[in-house]
Design brief:
single chain; 141 residues; alpha+beta; 2 domains; five-stranded antiparallel beta sheet; 5 strands; 29% helix; elongated
Length: 141
């Protein structure tokens, strides 16, 4: 099938362009991965917790996502989260956000907000209820 194909027939310029293109793509992917890992690390180390509210659940390519809102210092933020295997059961959930950049957040869909905290505007240094550690870790996979 490839007996007539010779690598030497491909111009060196084409090979060089393809190699450079692959290297650029690899650098962009690595940067995006490291940036996401850095955000997760910052959230875990510096994050504050609040109550957020699901405002929309919608289908997207590859699954379902939700849009949620939360307020920090009188400013409302809206963020999106892929649901994966999680199911939206309520409207109120705990979120974690970066105080230095409140737009960076995650929502904990597996940790229930008790009725006593549903309308709280407070921020906490840790989730103020007992929860299953696996439910917490699920958001950082």
């Amino acid at each position: 099938m490839f007996e007539n194909f010779k690598l030497s027939k491909i111009p060196k310029k084409t090979i060089k362009k393809n190699v450079i293109g692959l290297v650029v793509i690899a650098i962009v992917v690595a940067f995006a991965y490291l940036r996401n890992e850095n955000t997760d690390t910052k959230l875990l180390n510096l994050g504050k917790y609040k109550i957020g509210e699901i405002v929309e659940v919608f289908g997207m390519k590859g699954g379902t996502a939700c849009r949620y809102k939360y307020e920090v210092n009188g400013i409302e933020y809206i963020s999106t989260n892929y649901l994966g295997s999680s199911k939206v059961k309520n409207k109120k959930y705990f979120i974690i956000y970066l105080p230095s950049n409140p737009e960076k957040s995650k929502i904990f869909l597996e940790i229930q907000v008790p009725d006593s905290l549903r309308y709280s505007k407070k921020s906490w240094n840790k989730i103020p209820v007992k929860y299953d550690e696996k439910a917490f870790e699920k958001e950082f996979k």
